[in-house]
Design a protein that fits this description.
alpha/beta; Rossmann fold; 2 domains; seven-stranded mixed sheet; globular; binds guanosine-5'-diphosphate; binds magnesium ion
Length: about 325
């Protein structure tokens, strides 16, 4: 009774299929995927969200850091914040791929950032846990390790990275496990110093830049050393990076982190990230920081001048009310 009849099928195949068009009335529904630079700009303009740029070699732990921050909000507040939404939820989920579910392996792993996609922006809305402050927005920018490596070799690539000067926080991830290992420590240290040198040479870093150097995979360093030795190792690199770059930057922090420690480690996920997340969220974006302007004015005689001088005294240095 329901067997298809050839005549019918022929008729069906002739039904005209409307052509897909994109008209003025079409609505672009959000995909939840990571944002392009243009889409991220839109969020910056509408919310004033600070941009946190993660930069580092392939496998230094950038994507894991992003995925772990997303994970941390799944069950409870993190760093005294509640997750209040995101334009890139699907992207966060995609980055957070737990190989245990697939292969039965014990260590979680993270999907590689596809180099062709360059820089991917992830959006977070956070609310103070006590609900006493308005929602804050944050954009985490994941720059592919391949771009980092090209920037090490080529001044032209470095100069093209305008995001370096746009970002409110430059977060430089250096693989702590490699930096500690006999085999890779020289290579890792040389590259870490070289990238920043290139940034300074090409004027791709502002003098008021806020830079966080994160020594990642700290659980592996602790596994291979005693607490004392690890402390000494951290001190050595804090001194080195401060000596090399400290005076040329607005702020420099060197911190050990373990975004996703090995399951046998005593460190908890997102180790070292609480305080730093706070700073990224709470510090005003560079563009919104007030600039100090002194206005030269003469012969102030009106009451309104007196009022202005008493309410904004710092703007009227060396000027008196006649
Ligand atoms: N033990 C340990 N492994 C980590 C940690 N963070 C990242 N990894 C691993 O390091 C590898 C590279 O991380 P990924 O985030 O993809 O690096 P990316 O290329 O910089 O984005 C992955 O296998 C992660 O599971 C950590 O805190 N501890
Ligand atoms: Mg990645």
């Amino acid at each position: 009774m329901f067997a298809p009849c050839m005549d019918n099928m022929d008729t069906q195949s002739e039904i005209p299929v409307p052509e897909q068009t994109t008209g003025v009335n079409d609505i672009n529904l959000p995909t939840g995927k990571p944002l392009t630079s243009e889409e991220a700009n839109h969020i910056v303009r509408s919310t004033g969200a600070p941009i946190v740029l993660l930069i580092g070699a392939v496998k230094s732990g950038k994507t894991t850091l992003i995925a772990s921050i997303h994970d941390a909000f799944q069950w409870m507040p993190f760093a005294n914040y509640l997750a209040a939404g995101s334009e890139t939820l699907i992207g966060f989920e995609e980055r957070c791929f737990d190989s245990r579910a697939v292969s039965g392996a014990e260590e979680p792993t993270t999907i590689r950032t596809i180099p062709a996609e360059g820089i991917q922006f992830y959006h977070l809305k956070l609310r103070d846990q006590n609900m006493t402050a308005p929602i804050r927005h944050l954009l985490l920018a994941d720059m592919s390790g391949e771009i980092y490596e090209q920037a090490l070799d080529s001044s032209a690539v470095m100069r093209g990275l305008s995001i370096l000067t746009r970002a409110d926080h430059l977060v430089y991830l250096v693989d702590g496990a490699k930096l500690y290992s006999e085999e890779f420590k020289h290579h890792t240290r040389t590259n870490a110093l070289m990238l920043m040198r290139r940034c300074f040479e090409q004027n791709m870093i502002r003098t008021n830049a806020r830079v966080d150097v994160l020594l990642t995979k700290w659980d592996i360093v602790l596994k291979q050393s005693s607490q004392n030795v690890a402390d000494q190792f951290l001190k050595e690199y804090k001194n080195l990076f401060n000596k090399e770059w400290g005076a040329k930057l607005g702020r420099l922090n060197v911190l050990p982190i373990a975004a996703r420690p090995h399951y046998k480690s005593t460190l908890t996920p997102c180790y070292g990230l609480t305080e730093i997340l706070h700073r990224w969220v709470e510090e005003w974006p560079v563009k919104l920081q007030s600039a100090r302007i002194n206005i030269t004015v003469h012969g102030l005689t009106r009451m309104i001048d007196k009022f202005a001088m008493s309410t904004a005294e710092e703007m009227f240095e060396d000027v008196s009310y006649d």
